[in-house]
Amino acid sequence: MRRISKLTRVAVGVASIALAATACGGTSSDSGSGSDGGGDTKGLAIAYDIGGKGDQSFNDAAYAGLQKAQKEFDYKTADIEPTEGETDADKEQRLASLAKQGYNPVIGVGFAYGPAMEAVAKKYPKTTFGIVDSVVEGENVASLVFAEEQASYLAGVAAAKATKTNTVGFVGGVDIPLIHKFEAGYKQGVQDTSGGKVKVVSQYLTQTAEEGGFSSPDKGKAAAEGQIEKKADVLYQAAGLSGQGVIEAAAKAKVWAIGVDSDQYEQAALSAYKNYILTSALKDVGGAVYALAKSVEDGKPLTGTQTFDLKVNGVGLSESNPEFAKIAGLSDAVAKAKEGIIDGSIKVKTE
Hints:
Blueprint: H1 4-9, H2 18-21, E1 42-47, H3 58-73, E2 76-80, H4 88-101, E3 106-109, H5 114-123, E4 129-132, E5 141-146, H6 148-162, E6 167-174, H7 177-194, E7 199-206, H8 217-229, E8 234-238, H9 243-253, E9 256-261, E10 277-283, H10 285-297, E11 304-308, E12 315-317, H11 330-343
Parallel strand pairs: 1-2, 1-3, 3-4, 4-5, 5-11, 6-7, 6-8, 8-9, 9-10
Antiparallel strand pairs: 10-12
């Protein structure tokens, strides 16, 4: 396995291209002539998570990485949408179809692809597979994971500095360990910065992804409105497409929202609400996707667990909104916290 520093060196900065890369709509795929996997006539293929392309967040960040690879390597790519109510067998068929057509690497965007990835990777040993947000064992699998809790800690620092009511909110899409990492880091950042004076109101939209926790802006909006009624004036969401509803509700109430994964202040589809998006907890999914594609193109495919954290700029906090710098002590507090996490003096919780 190559060292993580070599992986992330090519990943840093790809998140920024997600701002221009997002596009709603259908799937782009090349039918091709097919192969037994591992072909070299086609390049990167990604299979989206729930919410699909156009979520202005997680999936769109992955698409940005695909676009960068497509432009740089000048090869055919594919990006495939999920279907409503799909099973692990459906996911397995999707990944197998991409490998059989000759795409390499093939990436499942989201932890839900875990069981399918484990099964398919064994059947196509010449193809490099990648999975975002989960660890799957396999000689030809790269597990692309992130220190979400670290970026969330910084978001908590920002929330504690920005609140005027001493109450802030967290909206999680689905009640699962991955989203618990976001909540844990956020709460710790708020508490460490405020000395326990700021209250965090938390809510999860659903217990399972199938119930729409990551794909229902109406659920996000309702949750945010409930937290605003409880005097929360900074709302951090880790809810995929549902997060758009949180941002909409925050803007309507003229309180702060904190975005996730992509810099949501810069997203065209959210431009009507941008003045109320204080910052975003960044997660360079696009960089990870591109890094794996580049490793395959270079003939040295990455495998094993590849972790993106603050130290390698795999996660971070955006400062695009000019208001970010105007809040007293915010920028300095975030910079100090980032330094502490990197040097190890701040240990961020994951649950």
